[in-house]
Write a structure and sequence with these properties.
The protein is α/β, with parallel strands linked by helices. It has 3 domains: about 190 residues, NAD(P)-binding Rossmann-like Domain (Rossmann fold); about 90 residues, N-(1-d-carboxylethyl)-l-norvaline Dehydrogenase, domain 2 (Orthogonal Bundle), CATH 1.10.1040.10; about 140 residues, Rossmann fold (3-Layer(aba) Sandwich), CATH 3.40.50. The protein is built from 19 helices and 14 strands. The strands form 2 sheets. An 8-stranded mixed beta sheet has the order 3-2-1-4-5-6-7-8, sandwiched between helices. Strands 11-10-9-12-13-14 form a 6-stranded parallel beta sheet. Helix 9 crosses helix 11. The longest helix is centred in the middle third of the chain and has 32 residues. It is elongated, with a radius of gyration of 24 Å. The protein starts with a strand and ends in a 13-residue tail after the last strand. The structure holds nicotinamide-adenine-dinucleotide and uridine-5'-diphosphate-glucose (UPG). The site of uridine-5'-diphosphate-glucose has 20 residues, from helix 9. Belongs to the UDP-glucose/GDP-mannose dehydrogenase family. It holds the Pfam family UDPG_MGDP_dh_C. This is UDP-glucose 6-dehydrogenase.
Length: about 450
């Protein structure tokens, strides 16, 4: 099948590469010529394990190419995927400007009957709106079919998720279109859920909202555990063994971030509001998350009597989670500016996200890709991302390098028994605090 993919962000790039890997001939189109230039040379524009090899292999086999010109990729395509961003508007709703522009680009360039597949996360009703927009603007008498094929990949494991996903959801306007898409996806060997378009659009938002709910739920339980002397990790283990609950997404911490959960939960609240439905549960999920992101700051202030002026602070992790250089909605973007505002001198460590962080956090803080460098002479440490380098660290490093070994861990990186053995003062989430004087 000849396929065009519009947008080479996380989703467009991984989709295009994966479709070429399973034998389709794919042209990836992006309006950003610098991305196209790098990708055409086989250099990935995002950090994603396993992606570089696949890009190089499929460029080499002739199945994959990149262009910044819609007229080079669209006229020949039988199927066009839209995978552009749907960021959050100021009122929380999804911004459809990029999807609408992609529709106009399609309308201006198609010369044959096509199926347009929307991979971007879009509110219910968008697929039909986009089909109508294309039909209104195309000059040629071509037949346009539309299908919703939401994406479920996670950053940091996008390639693995694409080739070993739990399901592929296809919402098509008729059985023939649904079957063509099922055939395109057959080599992935993943269960396919065929449904109507509105349900497919809703499956995506509901899945993200449910996962976000699980996280806020366990974070709320963690906060209760702290007041009641229980340990949230024990609680999550005991709950997760019930197969109706399941062990995943029950890791308490500093709150969810990333390019999807925050914006998609807000968009679903807005979408519900448009249908005169007050989504109170999801509103609480969002509120719990907002509070969770500043919880460590409260712990820090309470430990230092509200005064951290002039203190040197090692912040470990900038990315919203490990194995990505993405900072979108990272708790680091909430906590670091507050630490700076309170007069702290921040030195931030991240193994791969420093370049992206500099663009957003500027020069008011120091940066390092060396974990030990950040710890040197620090008055206290704040762990924001559970990078493996941080998790694997020998805890003696904190006493060896820091002025005082005081650690606020937003990701529960360390076993409390190990912490007990090391002489560090340790505050984590939903677990008993460990101070050196308690040892023994
Ligand atoms: N990032 C994820 O992990 C993830 C996972 C599942 C679903 N999603 C959803 O997928 C969509 C895309 O997300 P993303 O993170 O890949 O987005 P992104 O913002 O990282 O990338 C979008 C790309 O599209 C390009 N673009 C915009 N308009 C264009 C046009 N008219 N023609 C050609 N190129 C154009 C941009 O230059 C950019 O490179 C969103 O709706 C998102 O919610 C994202
Ligand atoms: O038990 C958990 C699991 C995750 N998180 C946090 O939740 C956020 C999101 O994590 P994750 O879901 O792994 O990353 P994303 O790449 O944002 O992926 C989510 O968002 C994508 C975009 O819609 C979807 O495609 C994926 O299925 C969905 O998992 C991160 O801040 C994590 O630290 C927790 O705090 N506790």
């Amino acid at each position: 099948m000849k396929i065009a993919v519009i947008g080479t962000g996380y989703v467009g790039l991984v989709t295009g590469v994966a479709l070429s890997e399973i034998g389709h001939v794919v042209t990836c189109i992006d309006v950003d010529p610098s991305k196209v230039e790098r990708l055409s040379k086989g250099i990935p524009t995002i950090y994603e394990p396993g992606l570089e090899e696949l890009i190089k292999k499929n460029i080499g086999s002739g199945n994959l190419r990149f262009t910044s010109e819609h007229q080079k990729g669209l006229p020949d395509a039988e199927v066009v995927y839209i995978a552009v961003g749907t960021p959050q508007r100021a009122d929380g709703a999804a911004n459809l400007d990029y999807v609408e522009q992609a529709a106009l680009d399609i309308a201006a360039n198609i010369k044959r009957d096509i199926i347009v597949v929307i991979k971007s996360t879009v509110p219910v009703g968008t697929n039909f709106h986009i089909r109508n927009l294309i039909n209104q603007h195309t000059m040629n008498s071509v037949r346009v079919k539309i299908a919703s094929n939401p994406e479920f990949l996670r950053e940091g494991s996008a390639v693995e998720d694409t080739f070993h996903g739990d399901r592929i959801v296809i919402g098509a306007e008729d059985a023939e279109t649904g079957e063509i898409l099922a055939q395109i996806n057959k080599p992935f060997n993943t269960p396919i859920v065929k449904t109507d378009i509105s349900s497919a659009e809703m499956i995506k938002y509901s899945s993200n909202a449910f996962l976000a709910t699980k996280i806020s739920f366990i974070n709320e339980i963690a906060n209760l555990c702290e007041s009641m002397g229980a340990n949230v990790e024990e609680v999550a283990k005991g709950m997760g063994l019930d197969h109706r609950i399941g062990p995943d997404f029950l890791k308490a911490g500093i709150g969810y971030g990333g390019s999807c959960f925050p914006k998609d939960t807000n968009a679903l609240v807005q979408l519900a509001g448009n249908a005169n439905h007050e989504f109170n549960l999801l509103k609480s999920v969002i509120e719990v998350n907002n509070n969770q992101q500043v919880l460590l700051l409260h712990k820090i202030l309470s430990r230092f009597g509200d005064d951290i002026q002039g203190k040197r602070v090692a912040v470990l992790g900038l990315a919203f989670k490990p194995n990505t250089d993405d900072l979108r909605e990272s708790p680091a973007l909430v906590i670091i500016p507050k630490l700076v505002e309170l007069g702290a001198n921040v030195i931030a460590y991240d193994p791969i996200a420093v370049n992206n962080a500099k663009k957003q956090l500027g020069t008011e803080i120091g940066y390092t890709e060396d974990f030990t460098e950040a710890l040197k002479n620090a008055d206290f440490t704040v762990i924001i991302t559970d990078w493996s380098e941080v998790k694997k660290a020998n805890l003696s490093i904190y006493s060896q390098l820091m002025k005082e070994p005081i650690v606020f861990d937003g990701r529960n990186c360390y076993d409390l028994n190990e912490v007990k053995k090391a002489t560090i003062e340790y505050y984590s989430i939903g677990r008993p605090d460990q101070a050196p004087e308690l040892i023994g």
